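Q: May I have one protein plus its fold?
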Amino acid sequence: MKKWMKLITFLIVSTFLLAACNTSKPETKAVNATGDGYEETTIRLAYNLPAGHHIAKGIEQFAKDVTEKSGGAVKVQVYPAGQLLTDKDMNQSILTGGVEMGVNSSTLWSSTVPAMGIFDVPYVFTNYEKAGEAINGEFGDKLRSAMEEKGAKVLMFADYGYAQFANNKRPLESPADFKGLKIRSIGDIPSEMIKSYGASPVFMGGGEVYMALKLNTVDGATSGTTAMVQRKYDEVAKYLTINNYSYLEFILAVNQKFWDGLPEKTQTLLTETAKESEDWIRSQAKSEDAATAKQLEEKGMEVYVVPEEDLPEWKEAAKPAWDAFTKNSGDLGKELLEMVDEQ
């Protein structure tokens, strides 16, 4: 009997030890010894942008600053360039708690909050200042609330800059020039625009585009010029069209349940530090767009800048994308469009 009791005790203890070892969620522990008053916490943060991108630099600085300000108590472990998650898997992992924090495009978040697709609607944000004012005001607050209702706390709107078109077939100087091309798309709204221009949209992650262009799986792609430089589009695409059709945003989001479980002091630290990085990233977006477009030209790409007087033609041809957004984004989407028009 004693042997059986010893065996049962051993199995129970072993089970508890195994469970403890396999715990995948970071834990908040006792107040750290530095006297800062922060509880020891480890947060995993994943993103899929290339390391040299200005958003990636801002995120890395955010993680570093959080650790330094907390005296090492709050650690943000960064997994860059798709090391932990692809952009396709990111949002679901954040929502389910598979990762505590992640950075992904507003385009991909629009499958969770359709109104997030407003950043993809062609020619809504006509300049950098207009986008910044909207995000910092009631417009941004409404999107933050909608995300929280779905289980994701928005810590930062990270300005990616304007989206352009690169391709390896011919100069794209009007919407009609797109006819028959296969263009990598980044979401439903851009896909509607691409189809309205006579091309076929192809969905794929940013990291897949280089090989797709090289192997002619696609003829072209839409992206920001900063990412085009980092991902060496100049090696596989000859033509670049600058038409500033969409002001892309990336979202630094936190699993809402994880956020709610953090001490208020830690929440304040993360919020304030994220705002500092957000401001820095926004200041870089405009200069990076100009600098990287020039770099692509210097590397041999033929650059066509759509004249301002021709933009109404591009906007009119993209009307199906506007219709798709208002149809799918509900009352919130319509309200946000009205707010932007009033600016």
User: Anything to note?
Assistant: Confidence is low (pLDDT under 50) at residues 1-35. The chain has one domain: 39-342. The longest helix spans residues 264-298.
